[in-house]
Amino acid sequence: MAKKSSSLFIVAFLLFAFGIGYMVWSGVSQNSVYFLNVSEALAKEQAQTPLSARIFGTVANESIERPQDGLGASFLLEDYENKAQTIHVTYKGVVPDTFTNGSEVIIEGSMQGTVFTAKTLMTKCPSKYQKENREKNA
After folding, report:
1. Cα–Cα distance between 56 and 36 in angstroms, integer?
2. pTM of the prediction?
3. What is the CA radius of gyration of the chain?
4. Could you tell me the end-to-end alpha-carbon distance of the chain, in angstroms, rounded to an integer?
5. Angle at 88 between CA 103 and CA 61, to 5 degrees
6. What is the pLDDT of residue 8?
7. What percent of the chain is predicted at pLDDT more than 90?
8. Distances (CA, A) of 137 to 129, 130, 131, 132, 134
């Protein structure tokens, strides 16, 4: 009888351990994305392009186009250091108030052909919000 209950305990423990391991593995694999700048993203061949990527860059001047319904934007994202390297980005969703020409942004999404389709668009806060500048302006 003791042997039967210890076997049952071992099987239950293995199932529990497998379940926890699977949840950890699936959580890590779904939330892991590559963080690249524009030139790194362009350097990757199409076959090497990750399914999901986070790209940092600057919105090219005079490149923002807004759709008629007001949601989303289409723009060119240029490399922070090499302005000649750009990626065409489309985004459908609410655009942050600080999103303007020349603003630094981080986009998350995937490359589809020559267009990067962003599912997330985040802007870097302007320097006027940093503590040092608030104290100077006060």
Report:
1. 6
2. 0.65
3. 23
4. 79
5. 35
6. 85
7. 20
8. 11, 11, 10, 9, 5
